[in-house]
Amino acid sequence: MRIQSNGVSLLLSTLLPSLVSASGFDCANINVGNYKYDLSPLKGVHVLNTTVETPDNVTSTTYRLNICNTLKSSAQYDKYGDEISCGTNKNICAFVHRAEKDGSGVDIFPFPIVDLEAAGEASKSPELKRLKDIDPETEGLHVKLEGGTYKENSKDKKGKKAGAIIEFQCDHERSGLEGLDTIQDSEAKERRRRADGEGGGVSSSNSSSSLNIKRVGMSDDDTYILQLDWRTKYACDEYEKEKGDTPSSKSWGFFTWLIIIAFLFIAAYLIFGSWLNYNRYGARGWDLLPHGDTIRDIPYIFQDWLRRVVNTLQGAGSRGGYSAV
Length: 325
What we know:
Elements: H1 20-23, E1 30-32, E2 35-37, E3 46-53, E4 57-65, E5 76-77, E6 81-85, E7 92-100, E8 106-114, E9 127-130, H2 131-134, E10 140-150, E11 160-170, H3 183-195, E12 211-218, E13 224-232, H4 239-244, H5 247-281, H6 292-318
Parallel strand pairs: 11-13
Antiparallel strand pairs: 1-2, 3-4, 4-7, 5-6, 7-8, 9-10, 10-11, 12-13
């Protein structure tokens, strides 16, 4: 088999904001140990195109991901409409286009890789780990999703188990959305590539893209695995804590509460004092307020204080040439 590189066409449509209903996996609220992750900013439909060329055929595969929610209408292969559909309630699907080099035919078929809403199998629950628990030198989040069924061709009715592994790697300089295309852009590139007769390969790496295919194939337990690397700041262990505990937010929080407490204290003092003056002395108007005379005199007191300050400063300046005998 000859594997060549070709650019990865990507697109994101809903990565991790609503898996809660099916599997208890809330992508905005991921907790592993004492760490919390929010991957909801990465939402969008992902489209990854790969091509593998052998002596006999050229196989192009389009992977579509919608991990937080089901693919819905996106589960259909746009090039062929309703004829090629992955079905409903799928989170990751593969659409295969295999053309024989001798011109004997083309085989087109889909298969689900992740189906987190399938009923009756406990293995559908996501497996979550910190990457540091696997490799102390790597920071991020390891997510393993299962529930799919791999097919070798359109006539394969039974198939084998399929799943996906996504390693969200901490990268403080990346949002995770770099290098992503739209679905339309992705498929247009694929059509142009076929029309130009370009060679194939597995799109496994693209330095400009935050999302890349790391490996595709059968694992030791005979399960088809799609493994992805995703570099993003949202996978950093301390990102959520740093975002919520910035120095400015702490300062503003303290002074806000200080102002609120002072205001409530003054308001309570004025209300209670007014009530007391009314009931004891039958006071009305300004006389209701405790220390009403002082409050009325505040503007004059301030003016007197300001005048004294000015006079003091002027007097200190006028003594510059005087010396005692």
